[in-house]
Specification:
249 residues; alpha/beta; Rossmann fold; seven-stranded parallel sheet; 8 helices; globular
Amino acid sequence: MTDIRLAGLAGAGIAVTGGASGIGRATVVLAARSGASVVAGDVNPQNLAALQELADAEGLPIRGVLLDVRDPDAVAEFVAAADIDGRLHGVVCSAAIAVERPSVEVGLDFWNDVLAVNLTGTFLVAQAAAARMAGRGGAIVAVAATSGTTGRAAMAPYSATKGAVMSLTRALAREWGPLGIRVNCVSPGAVDTPLRAAQPTRRDTVDTLPLRRVGTPEELALAIGGFLVDYTPWVTGQTLNVDGGSVMY
């Protein structure tokens, strides 16, 4: 899928959290190959270094920055870095914690940490982006998960935050629509990412999915990219399930 490009992103400023791994990284690479100037924020310096190697090898306009989405000041600087000369057009909120833990063993510190990254971090990034996009328009894409719709055993904090991200998407879309800002959400199912690989008891039964396989980060990036470009100018407040048919309604 390396030859796919999205028309409409050339020259745009794009910011992606969780941008050095999994779905975030695939989105960064797709946007950069499509001509966007991309700032990738991530908490993992090794992953950022690997992303920079790819960018240098292909001559892609990607800038990686260390980012903790729980830090409002760091978030503001991150979004500003993608808004040079007022070019910020799209922001993707992909940073997340996904750790399996039986609910009876979930302590308050762990609960708060998952909420701080997955939900509060999403809000802080969207808020900082909206402050810059107001009046000139733009697109914000949140990343949820099918477990936010269905729930998932041993991942109560994660499921709760991803359900909340979908609700947050709708609330922000209603509030910021008059400012010209579209806010949408992509909800992945089983995708072949490091987050999924780190969940030892993951029991997605691929043979029950209509498409009979897990997804790839690149396939999710295409869905996210579709919301970033102006192919869907009259679509906002929506959650798109990209899950091989796992959730249908």
